[in-house]
Amino acid sequence: MFWSWWNDFLFGSHKGIPVDPVRYIRVRSEEMIRASMLLGNSQISSQQRGACTWELPNSGHMKMNCDGVVDLETGNAAVASLIRDEKGLFRAGFQNFVGKCSPLTLELWSVKLGLELVLQRGFHHVVVESDYLEAIQLIQNQTNISNLDHLVRDIQGVLQQRRDVSIRHVFTECNLCDYLAKEALLIS
């Protein structure tokens, strides 16, 4: 989405750029959170749904959901990250169209860019949630893929530097950034 807005700005279109991009993303994120809470996911049982709802972080903590989406027909990809506080309120986020990328590489980029946002904003006590188990395993050093080492090392460096930031796996249904990433892909 930001990429699209930036291109509109650079090439003089300006018609697709919201007056207040940060407010636009915050409002859209809050709408998706409310809709997800109201509608749930009809493809999973109520027992699974109970175990698969977004939960508030502990008091004094923040939660960052991140995700990437690849259109299997075109190979085009987009990432998103959403950071919320202990009350579930939007604190920061982004959506980006990134072009062509593999799903694993894309997920690692969504984590890396989200962590850069955490550092930039000075947030502390952050739980990072991703629905891509292989990416989490790479980050936690449980597997090794040499062509992605640079991304994994960057993420691990932040996690080692910032002991108050942790990462964990969640189901896709619990990751509201899935909707933001899909929207960024559709807008591109």
From TrEMBL:
<dbReference type="InterPro" id="IPR036397">
    <property type="entry name" value="RNaseH_sf"/>
</dbReference>
<dbReference type="Pfam" id="PF13456">
    <property type="entry name" value="RVT_3"/>
</dbReference>
<feature type="domain" description="RNase H type-1">
    <location>
        <begin position="65"/>
        <end position="183"/>
    </location>
</feature>
<dbReference type="InterPro" id="IPR002156">
    <property type="entry name" value="RNaseH_domain"/>
</dbReference>
<protein>
    <recommendedName>
        <fullName>RNase H type-1 domain-containing protein</fullName>
    </recommendedName>
</protein>
<dbReference type="InterPro" id="IPR053151">
    <property type="entry name" value="RNase_H-like"/>
</dbReference>
<dbReference type="GO" id="GO:0004523">
    <property type="term" value="F:RNA-DNA hybrid ribonuclease activity"/>
</dbReference>
<dbReference type="GO" id="GO:0003676">
    <property type="term" value="F:nucleic acid binding"/>
</dbReference>
<dbReference type="InterPro" id="IPR012337">
    <property type="entry name" value="RNaseH-like_sf"/>
</dbReference>
<dbReference type="InterPro" id="IPR044730">
    <property type="entry name" value="RNase_H-like_dom_plant"/>
</dbReference>
